[in-house]
Amino acid sequence: MSKTASVPDQDALKRVGARVRQRLESDPQAYKVPTDAAEIYAIGDFLSGEECRRLTHMIDAVARPSELHETAYVAKFRTSYSGNFDPHDPFIKAISRRIDDVLGLPANVGENIQGQRYLPGQEFKPHNDWFYTDQEYWKLERKRGGQRCWTAMAFLNEVEEGGHTHFVEIGASIEPKPGVLLVWNNATVEGVPNEYTLHAGTPVIRGQKYVLTKWYRTRKHS
Ligand SMILES: O=C(O)CCC(=O)C(=O)O
Ligand SMILES: [Fe+2]
């Protein structure tokens, strides 16, 4: 992208990036994945075993084929079962606030937490979490919070084989470990959507994989 082209929400992406970076850099629990291409951090023991189990049961209760309640755009990449948790559930609210707190972001820029369950053979093909601002859907997303800045994702169970989170451009493959929260900045330090954040949920080979995801916007999300 040329320097003169206007990047929607660039200033906000830059500002939020700096704010969260500062927060994570002073968090002794946050381990930075060693790469210069993107800001990716893992936080171990973010959720207890009991919390993970409770969340997997909740996902079982709400999971449906992803395409039933997602845009065709996302459904093309994801074969797992997904479900929105009840955002008013006190347990979900508490988890959600704890994620906000790790990043140091206000609750009103966060999307609702989503749960995901992958059975053997299911995957999330390589994709970026940030929005392509030349696509039709951007007209709506621009008005309801704008570009996505950070992603938070928690692994909820042990997967027998497969189901890694693979940053394909960077060559970092993160093995699912229950209770670990993975967070990354979808933009560069300059506030431009970062192509190197391309990532996949690789196919589960044996067992099942449960995760939760929370995406953050640059502006108040509605
Ligand atoms: O399941 C994974 O490892 C990746 C999930 C993901 O990329 C997402 O929910 O945006
Ligand atoms: Fe993703």
Structure description:
By secondary structure, the protein is α+β, with helices and mostly antiparallel strands. The chain is 24% helix and 26% strand. The chain is built from five helices and 14 strands. The model has no long low-confidence stretch (mean pLDDT 92). The structure holds 2-oxoglutaric acid and fe (ii) ion. Fe (ii) ion (FE2) binds next to loops.
Which features does this protein show?
222 residues, alpha+beta, Jelly Rolls, eight-stranded antiparallel β-sheet, binds 2-oxoglutaric acid, binds fe (ii) ion, Rieske_2Fe-2S_sf, iron, procollagen-proline 4-dioxygenase activity
Tell me the span between the first and last alpha carbons.
Answer: 29 Å
Low-confidence stretches: none
Strand content: 25-35%
Give the full name of the CATH homologous superfamily: q2cbj1_9rhob like domain
Biggest sheet descriptor: 8 strands, antiparallel
Q: How many structural units, i.e. domains?
A: 1
CATH topology, by name, is: Jelly Rolls
Q: Helix-strand pattern, N to C?
A: HEEHEHEHEEHEEEEEEEE
- Structural class of the helices, strands and pairings? alpha+beta
E-strand count: 14
Mean pLDDT: 92
As a whole number of angstroms, the C-alpha radius of gyration is 16 Å
State the name of the first-level CATH class. Answer: Mainly Beta
The 3D shape can be described as globular
Helix content: 10-25%
Give the distinct bound molecules: 2-oxoglutaric acid, fe (ii) ion
> What spatial order of strands do you see in the largest sheet?
1-2-11-7-14-5-4-3
Named at the architecture level, the CATH assignment is: Sandwich
**Number of helix segments?**
5
